[in-house]
Amino acid sequence: MEERPQVIVAGHICIDMIPQLPPAETRFQIEPGSLVNIGPARFSGGGAVSNVGLALHRLGIPTGLMGKVGNDQFGQALLDMIRAHDPKLAEAMIVSDDEPTSYSIVVEPPGIDRAFLHCSGANDSMIADDFDESRWAGAKLFHFGYPPIMPAISANDGAELVKLLKRVKASGLTTSLDMCHVDPASPAGKVNWHKLLEDVLPYVDLFVPSYGELAWMVGKDCADESADMSEVAKSLDQLSEKVLSMGAGVIAIKLGEKGIYLRTGANAFNPAWAGRELWHPCYQVKVAGTTGSGDCTVAGLLTAVLHELKPDEALSYATGVGACSVEEASATGGVPSLSELQQRLSNGWATHTFKNIPDRWRSATGKAVLVGPNDQSK
After folding, report:
1. Which of 17, 54, 307, 351 is most deeply packed, by most CB within 10 A?
2. How many Å apart are CA 361 and CA 324, to the nearest integer?
3. What is this structure's pTM?
4. For residue range 63-118, what is the model confidence (pLDDT) as tens digits?
5. Cα–Cα distance between 260 and 283 in angstroms, integer?
6. 14-19 and 41-46 as β-strands: parallel, antiparallel, unpaired?
7. DSSP labels, 68-87
8. How many beta carbons lie within 10 A of that of residue 194, not counting itself?
9. Angle separating helix axes 293-306 and 47-58, nearest 10 degrees
């Protein structure tokens, strides 16, 4: 019998072109009539569909991808990249004859933060009716990523996203939702994200935004991401309480180098997860690149959910996969097999240390615990 996907990863997808640029000390400007010598370019898939989907595949999870591409050269190249990993991954991809494939030119000079030239392409028009319900038949989990850069899916307070997730949830799947940065000058900047989340989150079992994204959408007077851990913790109280009150069962907030925070309500998708509050610091690694690290963290978390692990183990998986991913420059090239991840986690992998951690994050006896192989914090 043919193996059906356990996870469907849907939402934003694009192809990234990453030219090799001169080092930072070789300053250059792009001016009319000028020529700048650069190195070869590499191409890779980008967006939640590619990053989360391929990371899950590398972890051994049968996965199906549901992104939308154009019937053009970039679309064919992107589909070929996906099929090179496994032809089954691309079987549910949507191909439009009327729109271009989304692509990004990644401007990444060595030693300087990267910038993007982006064409959103077919992602702009994706709506609930683009999705064939038969494609998720037999799956256990449905993950959707990046509605802030998908205008049709987020328009009208996310009416199309509500329609889609309502259908998926009615099919018996666990639902997961991730966000991305909102550009205030884009159509997403005009969306009432507070209202959208109120409408969408009752159909979301696992909400996995980053701290900055969530603070922009629903936070008031939240601490900056770079603030002291004690200040960030106060903001996490506010943000997680608000999200759970909107109807989400579980919220996992990605904190960048500070790790990941989890809080669950009484309606958690797994009764063993109900009423928990956990934090896991990042593991220590040598960083080669952070592209896709948030998506890979999500893939680790979803893998743990599929294996019905406890929430503390799930955060170990999430931070472990995220840490492995940044050891390689590409988005998913560093993601290990599941057995390799488990072995590394069992070998006493050291975590980063932080000052001024809230006392309740240190206690293993209260409602909150510090999750990690050890507590090295001071």
Report:
1. 54
2. 25
3. 0.92
4. 999 999 999 999 999 999 999 999 999 999 999 999 999 999 888 777 666 678 88
5. 11
6. antiparallel
7. EEESSHHHHHHHHHHHHH-G
8. 13
9. 50
The whole-angstrom separation of Cα 253 and Cα 272 is: 19
**Predicted local confidence at residue 21, as pLDDT:** 82
Which token pair is 253? Answer: 């907030």
Tokens of 116: 């993007």
- State both tokens at 249: 């069962």
Cα–Cα distance for residue pair 72/77, rounded to 1 Å? 9
**DSSP code for 210:** B
348 vs 356: CA distance, rounded Å: 23
- Tally of CB atoms within 10 A around 262: 25
Q: Tell me how far apart the 2 most distant CA atoms of the chain are, in Å.
A: 67
End-to-end CA distance of the chain: 54
pLDDT reported for residue 359: 79
Q: How many CB atoms lie within 10 A of CB 71?
A: 14
Q: How confident is the model at residue 24 (pLDDT cuts 50, 70, 90)?
A: low
Instruction: Tell me the pLDDT tens digit for each residue of 112-167.
Output: 666 788 899 999 999 999 999 999 999 999 999 999 999 999 999 999 999 999 99
Rounded to whole angstroms, the Cα distance separating 130 from 231 reads 43
Please enumerate in sequence order all residues whose Cβ is within 8 A of that of 122, keeping only pairs 6 or more positions apart, or say none. 68, 69, 70, 75, 94, 96, 99, 100, 101, 102
CB 362 within 8 A of CB 324: no
**What single-letter amino acid sits at 173?**
L
What 3-state DSSP class applies to 203? Answer: helix
Contact assessment for residue 196 and residue 218, using Cβ atoms and an 8 Å cutoff:
no
Transcribe 108-122 into DSSP letters: --TTS--EEEEE-GG
